[in-house]
Design a protein that fits this description.
This protein has 144 residues and is mainly alpha-helical. It has 5 helices and no strands.
Length: 144
């Protein structure tokens, strides 16, 4: 004999496990996205060290340099979020059978996740931008 709650839990066990696996993969992919954005922006900043040095030598402030680099990272992030939302709308229709207690186009999910990803992209862009704003112009102009 089992209680109704145990029967209910058992009937949802497979779906809960599937969602746990998907949630784990989502968390891992968020971490990989952050590392990827950071790596890309850091690489681009490294390639543009001479340009940053020239800008600083001509009178750009460190705040201008930070804004320039963060703006470039955020443009990439906005494009990625836009394409991702479009893809999520298509894929969510295919995953309708896996969703329990959540609509296919859940507004909270489609608002919260892009905000989170945009914030992660901002942080991943800000760290290399801060480092680039501290470059000594004379050193960056001498290196090749």
């Amino acid at each position: 004999m089992t209680t109704m709650q145990e029967r209910f839990d058992k009937s949802l066990a497979r779906r809960r496990f599937t969602m746990l696996v998907l949630g784990t993969f989502a968390a891992i992919s968020l971490g990989l996205a952050m590392i990827g954005i950071y790596g890309l922006i850091a690489y681009l900043v490294g390639q543009g060290t001479r340009e940053v040095g020239i800008r600083l030598a001509l009178g750009a402030t460190p705040a201008n340099i930070k804004a320039l680099i963060v703006r470039g990272g955020m443009i990439l992030a906005f494009w990625g979020v836009g394409i991702g939302i479009g893809g999520a709308l298509v894929v969510s229709r295919l995953m309708r059978s896996l969703l329990f207690g959540v609509g296919v186009t859940d507004v909270v999910t489609f608002v919260a996740v892009p905000i989170l990803l945009t914030f992660v992209a901002f942080l991943a862009s800000y760290v290399p931008a801060r480092r680039a704003s501290r470059i000594d112009p004379s050193t960056s102009l001498r290196c090749e």
